[in-house]
Amino acid sequence: MAKKPTNTPSMILYGLLKTKGSELGWERSVLISEAAQSFDGEPDNLLREMSDALDALMMAGIITMVGMKELNLVRLKDLSKVLK
Prior knowledge:
three-stranded antiparallel beta sheet
């Protein structure tokens, strides 16, 4: 029997943006906090893990910044335009 995949910080962040995100974006710290609530563990460690995972998704080009940098909004990148 195949093992069910374990949710990773990256999977949680991606899932939140896919299901609850919008074109307007999601404030970075709110997204990290919301994602951290889905895990058990020390709050400080979880926030750092989620922040690191978000940075990795941004470096991979899956998540992008939206609008003015001061607002610190992120959203899923529209990969359909990239893949054409």
